[in-house]
Design goal:
- The chain is mainly beta.
- The protein contains six helices and 30 strands.
- Strands 19, 20, 21, 22, 23, 24, 25 and 26 form an eight-stranded mixed β-sheet that branches. It has a four-stranded antiparallel β-sheet with strand order 3-4-1-6, with no helix packed on it.
- Strand 12 and strand 13 form a beta hairpin.
């Protein structure tokens, strides 16, 4: 950048550089080697101040090189007045400045500022303004766009968006030339695809900041209700991953398992006085809560000693060492086969397998009692959150899918905004089952929490739920272990049979009153 400054000779004399009447220093903030500063006498009344850079995009550029609402001084200039006399105050109006400059555009090329000047060669900065946002409610990962209407967006720039994976503590930066997320950028309108993987994190609620490359920035509070896992496809779109289950793997509904052996032998849980039964009861109730809230059937199927296994297609709760930095982890694996976008514009892959890993290193509170002990983490709240991940929901900046559960807190409810996202997931999955998901299933025929319990081996208890038999039928039931007591209730919960005996086989004869 070359700045020509015409100065008043009556105060400074002529050739002020050669006569050592002027000094210039770099800004105290920008004391580095990215630019050079030189002074020279252009004429006897004009000084030439050159701020020179090779215009190479630095690999570790700091934010103070970017145009923003706050500008840093590049130079500080000191003039030595030789004869003040009765000439009065010396002000900036006594100097005439003109110059040229280049900037690094978003494609990392040098460009003259003059190329962007308005008429008469004067360069003007305008204030970015947002008049209106179009699209509500906002969901990330479902091909929804948000439109910003306003002024002075220029024709290039960037948008900084809260990162939902850390509650908005950091930002996701999207450049205007990235057509994967920016669908339109003009001086008066911007369209942004609301993504759950941009880049690698869900776009979250909070202040969305529009920063034009030239004009000053502006911001708007945006609320993102939920984020759904999706996949970037070759057609430059993001398409949802489906929660359809695979009957080919025996999953005609969400059948979940528990790694009983790992949990009941875990020394960390034992040292805290936490039993397998405690963990099972909390997990069982958390799945039931989800079933009642979202209308998807979860069925407990017993023990799975494989624990976290990426290929068994069994949704399993287990325990392991996650390093103590996170409370739990739910890795989800997607099918390799992609759906044809010409047949289904929304769905791409489907859920193949998912397991919930509880970190063994935490001080856990494991109880159905909602009064969480201080300094302990509520397993119930964590399970509610992790089941959301199992259903391919990603982090949000609030509610059930907030990225963290503080110690001593109780977050046991499933918020309505998250359930709105589940409804989108359900509806689009059901619409795709007859198309690219042919043969898969999504069981929504539930009536409350009707999850059956099998093989609760810790307490040697077996529960058999109502089955209808004709009168006078002889029923034989075999058990793996001897039972000590049996009770049978009819459909109205009345006790119709009771016996205390040690046996592995039970013979029953039905009667007219006992519909068991």
């Amino acid at each position: 950048m070359s700045i020509k400054v015409r100065y008043p000779k009556r105060n400074l004399g002529d050739y002020i550089v050669n006569n050592v009447k002027i000094e210039a220093q770099k800004s105290t903030i920008l004391l580095d080697n990215i630019y050079e500063l030189n002074l020279s006498d252009f004429t006897d009344t004009i000084v030439d101040i050159k701020i020179h850079s090779d215009c190479i995009f630095p690999s570790t550029r700091s934010t103070y090189y970017e145009l923003d609402t706050i500008f840093e001084n590049l130079i500080a200039v000191t003039l030595k007045v030789s004869n003040w006399g009765l000439l009065g105050d010396l002000t900036i109006e006594d100097f005439q400045l003109e110059g040229t400059a280049k900037y690094i555009n978003e494609t990392e090329d040098c460009q003259e500022f003059d190329d962007l000047c308005v008429e008469n060669g004067s360069f003007q900065l305008g204030f970015c303004d947002i008049f209106q946002t179009i699209t509500a409610h906002f969901g990330a990962g479902i091909q929804q766009e948000i439109t910003f209407k306003g002024l002075n967006y220029g024709f290039s720039g960037k948008i900084e968006i809260p990162n939902a994976d850390d509650g908005g503590a950091s930002s996701i930066t999207i450049n205007s030339n990235d057509t994967r997320w920016i669908k339109l950028w003009s001086d008066t309108e911007i369209k942004v695809l609301i993504s759950s993987i941009a880049p690698d994190h869900p776009m979250g609620s909070g202040k969305w900041k529009i920063k034009p490359i030239i004009n000053s920035g502006c911001e708007k509070d945006i609320e993102i209700d939920y984020a759904i896992s999706n996949t970037f496809s070759a057609s430059n779109t993001e398409r949802m991953n489906s929660i359809a289950t695979s009957p080919f793997a025996g999953n005609d509904k969400f059948k979940w398992y528990i790694d009983k052996t790992a949990i009941e032998t875990n020394s960390f849980l034992i040292s805290q006085g936490i039993s397998y039964t405690d963990v099972f009861n909390v997990c069982y109730q958390a799945f039931c809560d989800w079933e009642q809230a979202c209308g998807l059937e979860f069925s407990f199927e017993g023990e799975n000693v494989n624990g976290n296994n990426a290929t068994d297609q069994k949704y399993t709760v287990t325990i392991g060492d996650l390093g103590g930095s996170i409370l739990a982890n739910t890795p989800t694996r997607l099918s390799i086969t992609s759906c044809d976008p010409s047949n289904n514009a929304y769905i791409d892959r489907r859920l193949f397998d998912s397991d919930i890993i509880i970190d063994e290193n935490q001080p856990w509170y494991v109880s159905l009692n909602p009064t969480v002990q201080s300094a302990k983490f509520d397993l119930y709240s964590v399970m509610i959150h992790e089941i959301g991940h199992l259903l391919l929901m990603k982090h949000a900046n609030q509610g059930t899918m907030f990225f963290m559960t503080p110690s001593g807190s109780n977050v046991r409810s499933i918020d309505s905004k998250l359930l709105n996202g589940i409804e989108v997931q359900k509806n689009r999955t059901l619409n795709a089952i007859g198309d690219c998901l042919a043969g898969f299933a999504l069981n929504t025929s539930v009536a409350g929490c009707t999850t059956s319990t099998k093989d609760d081996l810790n307490i040697n208890e077996n529960r058999i739920y109502p089955n209808l038999f004709y009168s006078g039928a002889i029923i034989q039931i075999n058990f793996e272990k001897e039972f000590e007591e049996i009770e049978i209730y009819d459909l109205k919960s009345r006790l119709v049979y009771q016996s205390k005996t040690k046996s592995r086989t039970l013979f029953l004869m039905t009667c007219k009153q006992a519909s068991i």
